[in-house]
Amino acid sequence: MRKNIAEGISDSFEDAMNSYYESASVKKDAHKFNIKYFHLRRRLMPEEQAMLDEIFTDAERSEHDATRKAFSRGIEIGISMERSIQPETEPEC
């Protein structure tokens, strides 16, 4: 049961993030970022470029992990709240 919930959360997260990343505003922001990033990157030596790329990749991974954890935690809280407000019914004999 726990694995199905985890898979469902993962699928929901991916669906939500894909639609977010495909939005026009995010694409516009990414384009602006890329212009600045590659402008800076071109000014660096090859080893500095590699370091900048590594820093960016690490930051992106960290942000993605934090977002996934927050999404999962929100789902868990929602499930917990739903369970706490559902009336407990006694089984009929």
Describe this entry's structure for a reader.
- By secondary structure, the chain is mostly helical.
- The protein has a domain of 42 residues.
- 85% of the residues lie in helices and 0% in strands.
- The longest helix is centred in the last third of the chain and has 40 residues.
Q: Kindly estimate the percentage of residues that lie in beta strands according to DSSP.
A: under 5%
Weakly predicted, low-confidence segments = none
Using the CA coordinates, give the radius of gyration.
21 Å
How many β-strand stretches? 0
Helix content: over 70%
How would you describe the shape? elongated
Structural class: mainly alpha
Our measurement of the CA-to-CA distance between the termini, rounded to an integer number of angstroms, reads: 28 Å
Largest sheet: none
So how many helices?
3
Order of helices and strands: HHH
Mean pLDDT: 84
Features:
3 helices, mainly alpha, 93 residues
Secondary structure blueprint with pairings:
Elements: H1 2-21, H2 24-42, H3 46-85
What is shown here, in short?
This protein has helices spanning 2-21, 24-42, 46-85. It has 93 residues and is an all-alpha fold.
